[in-house]
Amino acid sequence: MTEISIVIPIFNEEENIQILYSELNKILEELKKDYEIIFVDDGSNDRSFEILEKIHNEDKNVKIIKFRKNFGQTAAISAGFEKAKGEVVITMDADLQNDPNDIPCLLEKISEGYDVVSGWRKGRKDPFLGKKIPSKISNFLTRKLTGVNIHDFGCTLKAYKKEVLTDLELYGEMHRYIPAIVAWKGFRLSEIEVKHLPRKFGKSKYGIWRIMKGFLDLLVVVFWQKYSTRPIHLFGGLGILLSAIGALLGFYLALQKIFFNVSLANKPALLLAMVLVLVGIQFISTGLIADILIKLYYSKRGMDYSIEKLNND
Ligand code: UDP
Ligand code: MG
Description:
Blueprint: E1 4-10, H1 14-31, E2 35-41, H2 48-58, E3 62-66, H3 73-83, E4 88-91, H4 103-111, E5 116-121, H5 128-146, E6 158-161, H6 178-184, E7 189-194, H7 209-227, H8 231-260, H9 268-301
Parallel strand pairs: 1-2, 1-4, 2-3, 5-7
Antiparallel strand pairs: 4-6, 5-6
Helix pairs in contact: 1-2, 5-7, 8-9
């Protein structure tokens, strides 16, 4: 029985793989547990796959998944999860920025009874302006919007009990928000400080666009969590509010016109009132359509819940 699966996404990391594998191998052997390392080659166009195959041929604990092209880190992690057989699944980066020496600490925390243990790169070794500041802002927003209080959502070094990963539907750049998604499902979440090292070889695969994409993904995750069962509550609520403000404003203008003969021709407020009512109606209709779509969606796959135990004999 496999006890531990390590899942590692790889996109053009030729200089890092061998070093990572040696360190990892040493630590995992010391643990004296059954393990597998799953490298997911996310469409690398350097020598990464060649190096991986060589390692795979010499070590039966090493498995490789090779993507036909670059599908992104979330897809790679998700493919790894699907193949992972371990009771505990650990994800980490391939670029030597995560330290395999932290793995025993993650495992220990899991054995204390947590379902997910997330790494916190407290002394993060990344460029200040390009990475650390955006990451501070995005972690702050994520904490506020999801209500899940961990410091570092973006750290790939995380450990999961196997059952956490069933029914986890990942897409986009979503892997960062797995802690929030699983905390909402009622799994127990914890965080430990982990080491972080500067990238020595190869380049970071992400630029400034990631921040915007990440934020949009966050909106989807939060919207889905809060309103996916009744989108009309969000859209309809907003729609009614805007329409009501517009209607009141219009009513006020009409009274002025009727009783005090105030001209409406040069009043931008009239335009505002009309726009508010129209936008409000749009929101309500969007809400209705979204609600119908959601009905269709759930009638096909059933409601979302997560069962911890079933005593059914
Ligand atoms: N990665 C991947 N596919 C991608 C981009 C990145 O598999 O499209 C891998 C990459 O090889 C590394 C990890 O994801 O192992 C994190 O990437 P990177 O170090 O570039 O991110 P950063 O540390 O700069 O946030
Ligand atoms: Mg990195």
